[in-house]
Description:
Elements: E1 2-6, E2 12-13, E3 22-29, E4 32-40, H1 51-59, E5 64-69, H2 74-82, E6 86-89, E7 94-95, H3 96-108, H4 113-119
Parallel strand pairs: 1-5, 5-6
Antiparallel strand pairs: 1-3, 2-7, 3-4
Helix pairs in contact: 1-2
Amino acid sequence: MKIAFCTTDGTLIDEHFGRCEQMAIYDITPAGYHFEEMRSMEVIDPSGPHGSHIESKASSIADCAIVYMTEIGGPAAAVVVRNRIHPVKVPKPQPIEEVLESLQHTLQNSPPPWLKKIMHS
């Protein structure tokens, strides 16, 4: 399954979903993971109407099952979920590799029900 990470430098999950200019896309299985691509994203202007921009950003990662970020607003999270992508907020910037290793370990052992559902869809 593909995972998207909101990042400023390609190594850390360190960006807000709306402000994110790029997302690192990885493919992960219980056996391993690998980098797929860096996708450019449209930046959402917080002072303007941004419903269609959020929809566009979510659509651009529609092939991903999960998206990690440092922050996401309620309306944006609803759009992401409606696009069948599971949003995950990290409490502080974290290395993408650490999250991938932890997620791979979870996939190998006992994934929670929400993750099992994603894996089998």
